[in-house]
Amino acid sequence: MKLTVLNSHEGLTDEEIDLNNLVIQKISECANTQNPVSEADFFSNHPYHREMEILSAKVLAPPVDGCPYSTRWYYERSRGKWQQEQMKLTKAEIKHFREKSPRKQLVKKEKLAKCLNTIYMNPHQVVTGSARNMKLFSDHINSLWEKSKESINEVYFKKAICTVIIFDEADNIVNKSEWYPTGGNKAQIVPYTIAKIMTCIPDKFDIDYARIWKYQRLYPSFVHEIEILAEKVLYWIDNTRQGVIPREYTKKATTWKEFKDNFHYILSDKFVNDLVSLSFSKQEEQAAKKQSLFDNNIEISVQIFNKGAEYWL
């Protein structure tokens, strides 16, 4: 066994913590060249993922379906951590842990990248596979963190989890539909369906994420919209490129552009009536961003105070 010991993050500056994480990442890269370690594993120390991990412990989902307590959407920043947390627990403690953090609410970073990138209308990237999509999505994460790390807050986390709910329910709808053939192209149908719906939403309107979060499921008009469009997407994918494997040509940006621009689809009135004002969503995001900045400043002030006079002298 080779054991590499690094200093803990306690007492380090942000710059030193970032350097420490970079060293850890580079050691993992160089030490695992003989093992199948994904690029997503190396990316797990990015501050975006650390912040999402913190938020997943703090932002609890409301109780639904007769459950008397709130539950946690467990964001797994590093592979296998959900399982590792239970290793030293008793049977009773494991039972309590799984009630509060159920497996069905385990969200791996690759899964979140797939769901968010679908909502951001990049289904052609999503269908390239988890590893490739994670690499492409990491550019967005880097840009977002550098421009405004305060954007990664409670409102952002709730919306991110809502994209997981949307994706999973769409996947389930397609899988159970009578028109869907066993072993069909569900991996392509689901992201293309959701992304197409997003492109059709009128300007100044948005999905009712607050409603999805409150009930932890899609509302009826959203379910109905997916049921209608997904079947049409199936036939479009199967019949657009005769003799070509769908999972290959759906990866191309030109395919998505053709579908987005030329596939005519009108949202149902019920779905449109359930949309919310985009300005309201923006106001909520701005308020959360200001609160996050305020909280960060308070945290910094506490750290300064805790250092003590002797340290500063």
Strand content of the residues, in percent?
under 5%
General shape: globular
What's the SSE pattern? HHHEEEHHEHHHHHEHHHHHEH
Spatial order of the strands in the main sheet? 1-2
Determine the number of helices (DSSP H or I, runs of at least 4 residues).
16
End-to-end Cα distance, whole Å, is: 44 Å
Taking the sheet with the most strands, its summary is:
2 strands, antiparallel
What's the total number of strands? 6
If you average the pLDDT, what whole number results?
A: 88
The proportion of residues forming helix, as a percent range, comes to 55-70%
Rounded to the nearest angstrom, the radius of gyration is 22 Å
Protein structure class? mainly alpha
Which runs of at least 5 residues are low in confidence (pLDDT < 50)?
none
Descriptive report:
Helices cover 65% and strands 4% of the residues. The strands form 3 sheets. The protein has a two-stranded antiparallel ribbon with strand order 1-2. Strands 3-4 form a two-stranded parallel sheet. A two-stranded antiparallel sheet has the order 5-6. It contains 16 helices and 6 strands. The mean pLDDT is 88. It is mainly alpha-helical and 313 residues long. The chain has helices spanning 14-31, 39-42, 47-58, 81-84, 91-100, 109-119, 123-126, 130-148, 154-176, 186-200, 209-215, 220-240, 246-249, 253-262, 269-273, 278-312; strands at 60-61, 71-72, 74-76, 106-108, 205-206, 276-277. The longest helix is centred in the last third of the chain and has 35 residues, at 278-312. α10 packs across α12.
